[in-house]
Specification:
The protein has 374 residues and is mainly beta. The protein has 3 helices and 24 strands. It has 2 domains: 176 residues, no CATH class; 172 residues, no CATH class. The radius of gyration is 24 Å and the shape is globular.
Length: 374
């Protein structure tokens, strides 16, 4: 989750954009680097992290560097203060013995840099959590254009239901997954095992692979629903692959966020979807909620986010796609195209390593997860 959060927040850095003022291309040395503050706290009884860094150039072409030695504090609306401990270079962690976020309380982030510069966020309320409703897996057909021709793909969609409410609610969704698979060349000498003293076990060997998914900003709001109306949004869309050849167990996570955080991420999402053309308007700077205390017009990049998290599991099976894949379609890396004669066998391309030993797939093992009951 921490890695996905960082990936999502790095989008904020990469898209240096704001609805407030146009970006000035005449950059001088004084604004050639920007402070970046990333912090998310949730209702989980676990450590929460803040990361401080500074870009080496306004366009990130030189990367960024962490900022150690800062004083980082979280304050609540009862004027309680909770200091963060520097865990590593520029990465700070809350103390679980003294700080447990509480639903209904509001929090702000305070940062004092070694240079003496001080930044503070506005207060963010920890809203009540919103459970995930019924999850439905539905097959569908998506049409895309390739080489001036329409191409139809059978997909599986994860759909939920979100009712209207007197107070509009705002969410972002993400997921992590574990999938079972059995590679088609398990134990085969087609890979590299002719040189090994002990080849891997032959079939059937089933592996389970865990993946943290850095999906696009998956946002949803029910503020346009009429009273008693229920929406059924698609949370995620999947194309068939070997990951669904047996079953895919996914843990969907819902974060209830404030309207300000939703709007901030929505601006980034829109620029991701529609930006990049020579004919686009000049890029603008999206301002977060971390402002300099002695100069409120000066903002750091990034956002202090307070959210409540709920989660729910669902399972995607191969039958959910209504399409049957042959082994060479599901595992294209295991059936590389052979070179024409007279290419000798030893020079022919070989399957990737995991095709012959599923344990070599990233984050994979033969250990069955405790919640895998099918």
């Amino acid at each position: 989750m921490r890695n996905r959060l960082r990936n999502s927040l790095l989008i904020i850095i990469v898209i240096l954009t704001s609805c407030i003022e146009q970006f000035d291309p005449n950059i001088n040395e004084s604004n050639s680097a920007r402070l970046v503050i990333e912090c998310l706290i949730t209702n989980e009884n676990a450590p929460h992290f803040a990361t401080l860094s500074r870009t080496k150039s306004i366009d990130l072409s030189l990367g960024s560097e962490r900022i150690p030695g800062a004083i980082v504090t979280i304050k609540d609306d009862l004027n309680n203060s909770f200091g963060l401990i520097e865990l590593s270079n520029g990465r700070y962690m809350t103390d679980t013995a003294s700080f447990t976020p509480t639903v209904g309380r509001s929090y702000s982030l305070h940062v004092e840099l070694p240079s003496g510069e001080r930044y503070v966020s506005d207060m963010q309320e920890m809203l009540s959590p919103e459970p995930i409703g019924e999850l439905t897996i539905m097959n569908d057909v998506i049409t895309s254009v390739s080489n001036n021709s329409d191409v139809e793909s059978k997909v599986a969609k994860v759909i939920t239901n979100i009712p209207s409410s007197e107070t509009p609610k705002y969410f972002w969704h993400e997921y992590e997954g574990v999938f079972a698979f059995e590679t088609p060349k398990q134990g085969s000498e087609d890979c590299f095992y002719d040189s090994l003293e002990t080849p891997p076990p032959g079939p059937p060997v089933r592996c389970f692979a865990f993946e943290e998914v850095s999906s696009k900003l998956n946002l949803y709001s029910n503020d346009e629903l009429q009273t008693t109306e229920t929406d059924n949004p698609t949370l995620f869309t999947f194309y068939p692959s070997f990951k669904f050849s047996i079953a895919y167990n996914m843990l969907i996570k819902r974060y209830r966020i404030s309207k300000d955080v939703y709007n901030y991420f929505d601006q980034i999402r829109l620029q991701q979807e529609f930006g990049g053309s020579l004919f686009d308007p000049p890029p603008t700077e999206i301002l977060g909620n971390m402002a300099k205390i002695d100069n409120p017009d000066e903002h750091a990049l990034g956002m202090f986010i307070v959210a409540t998290r709920t989660s729910k599991r669902t399972i995607i099976r191969p039958t959910d796609f209504k399409v049957e894949q042959l082994p060479n379609e599901a595992y294209p890396d295991c059936f590389p195209q052979q070179l024409p004669p007279p290419t000798p066998p030893e020079l022919q391309p070989r399957p990737v390593d995991y095709c012959c030993d599923c344990r070599l797939y990233p984050n994979s093992s033969t250990t069955r997860p405790s919640y895998w009951n099918y």
